[in-house]
Design brief:
The chain is mostly beta strands. The chain has one helix and six strands; from the N terminus they run E-E-H-E-E-E-E. A hairpin with a 2-residue loop joins strand 5 and strand 6. The longest helix is centred in the middle third of the chain and has 16 residues. The two termini are 22 Å apart. The model has no long low-confidence stretch (mean pLDDT 88).
């Protein structure tokens, strides 16, 4: 699937490299490859800021609920976010977002991010407002 034909995010704010699987309206899986050329990577740690990974989860959540029409998702609220590790230059971050409920443009979901077999972020609630094409 072509991510850029579904959500309007572009470099430098597109935080998803590939969508692996989607069950429309239920869940989505994707990933982000972290490279040393990313604008947010800096010495000495070379890690991706944790909130940028949360943004990647929010983008994936917006994707999980959209159709092939261009939509814009706004991150509305977060709750129960646990930071358990980091992602560094050279890592592939596996992303998962599950829709818990959707009503009147608001999508409540949960998700997580992994590197290898280590969970680095758990998100109990990520709320997104989906605005359709104008």
């Amino acid at each position: 699937m072509d991510i850029q034909s579904v959500i309007p995010h572009r470099y430098p704010f597109l935080m998803i490299d590939r969508i692996l699987e989607v069950e429309q309206g239920k869940w989505a899986k994707g990933y982000k490859n972290v490279t040393g050329n990313e604008w947010f990577i800096s010495e000495p740690n070379n890690n991706m800021p944790r909130m940028m990974i949360v943004e990647a989860l929010a983008q994936l959540g917006a994707f999980a609920l959209t159709s092939s029409e261009r939509n814009l998702g706004f991150l509305s609220s977060l709750n129960g976010i646990e930071f358990l590790g980091d992602a560094y230059s050279g890592d592939r971050i596996g992303l998962y977002y599950e829709v818990v409920k959707s009503r009147k443009g608001f999508v409540l979901g949960k998700g997580g991010a992994i590197v290898g077999d280590q969970v680095i972020i758990k998100a109990e609630e990520i709320m997104i407002y989906i605005q359709g094409p104008s």
